[in-house]
């Protein structure tokens, strides 16, 4: 009977530990997360939408899977940005995740990193065609200097107003 109670208690402890672990897309992580509700109107030719940043995690690092290279080795950090994009117009919005860039204190604009992938995160924002009212949810991962805080960071959507190229920028502070 004592053995059964010990096994049950160990099992319950494991459940509590698993439920208590912070998660990001189903993967346990380390980092400093901040919930945001910031958005901006964006356009891509005739298509219009609302890009919303739901959360930002600085010093992000997955605790599952294998990461190809730790940015800390170069004095950098992973930054996770939770995003929702909604088509608010009548035209089909052909969203490509590479239209979303990241500005930090060291670079003018960087693409999402390939160092994090479906092997260690399961919430990557994917390219998608959005009909009127449809949404795409997920996260994009970027690299920034290790000392950067959200005050030095912004998200940039590289779009068009009509046929004129336009960068839409949203500070992440």
Assign an overall shape.
Answer: globular
Q: Write down the secondary-structure element order.
A: HEEEEEEEEEE
Mean pLDDT: 85
Number of strands: 10
Structural class call reads mainly beta
Low-confidence stretches: 1-28
Largest sheet: 5 strands, antiparallel
Query: How far apart lie the N and C ends?
Result: 55 Å
Rg measurement, Å: 19 Å
In what range is the share of β-strand residues? over 45%
Adjacency order of strands in the biggest sheet: 1-2-3-4-8
Number of helices: 1
Helix content: 10-25%
Description:
- The protein is mainly β and 173 residues long.
- Helices cover 11% and strands 49% of the residues.
- It is built from one helix and ten strands.
- The protein has one helix at residues 2-20; strands at 23-24, 27-44, 47-62, 76-87, 93-95, 100-103, 128-130, 135-145, 154-161, 164-171.
- The strands form three sheets. A five-stranded antiparallel sheet has the order 1-2-3-4-8, with no helix packed on it.
- A hairpin with a 2-residue loop joins strand 9 (154-161) and strand 10 (164-171).
- The protein is globular and about 45 Å long.
- The N and C termini lie far apart (55 Å).
- Mean pLDDT is 85; it is low at 1-28.
